[in-house]
Specification:
With 198 residues, the protein is mostly helical. It contains eight helices and three strands.
């Protein structure tokens, strides 16, 4: 579904003759201030969205800047910070986003449903998942070694019913001997975490 029909971005040449003093800061010395120079410098003044819109250009050309502008203009949730400047909010005032009829039909605002996911979040998730999986792998090795040792151990002749630790150890050894190794590991450890969110 399409929620944004288009975004209009200010032009350095056309939009900086303000009717009020609100944008008087946009004199010739400030036209290079981020993000004013990034997109208009490349001739990008409007993006019209379709069912799927793919933005592919080289590094440093403003893809992330455009996404940050859209996210901030729509007040989307974002867990990670982004590059900002003292002029960013002023730039946002000059931008205009036209929402689709689908977005207007949402029971709450688009900022309640939408969020921006940056590459930093994806990489952080993958690294965190790999670290957790490494911990799981290490615990699995320990459990496998313990299971092998306990399978070879003789069952105790008696247990002390007054000692909870003795009861726990006996029941644990019974479980180890009764279950297949893979079933025991699954029950006590689980599986590795998928690195891909579905």
């Amino acid at each position: 579904m399409i929620y944004i029909e288009r975004i209009k971005l200010p032009s350095l040449d056309r939009d900086y003759t303000p009717p009020s003093r609100e944008f008087d800061f946009l004199n010739s010395t400030h036209k290079s201030a981020y993000p004013f120079h990034v997109l208009s410098f490349r001739g990008l003044f409007e993006v019209v969205f379709d069912d799927v819109t793919i933005i592919t250009v080289g590094n440093g050309t403003g893809k992330s800047t455009l996404l940050n502008i859209i996210a901030q203009k729509l007040k989307l949730r974002r867990p990670t910070p982004f590059n900002n400047s003292e002029y960013f909010d002023r730039y946002l005032k000059l931008c205009r986003i036209d929402l689709s009829s689908t977005a207007h039909q949402l029971s709450a605002g688009i900022n309640e449903y939408g969020r921006i996911i940056s590459s930093d979040e994806v990489f952080d998730y993958m690294i965190e998942t790999r670290l957790k999986n490494d911990e799981i792998d290490e615990r699995r090795k320990t459990i496998v070694a313990d299971v092998e040792r306990m399978r070879d151990d003789e069952m105790p002749d008696h247990i002390d019913l007054e000692d909870p630790e003795s009861i726990r150890a006996y029941l644990h050894q019974c479980e180890v001997k009764k279950k297949a190794r893979s079933k025991y590991i699954k029950d006590h450890l689980g599986f590795n975490i998928s690195e891909f969110k579905r």
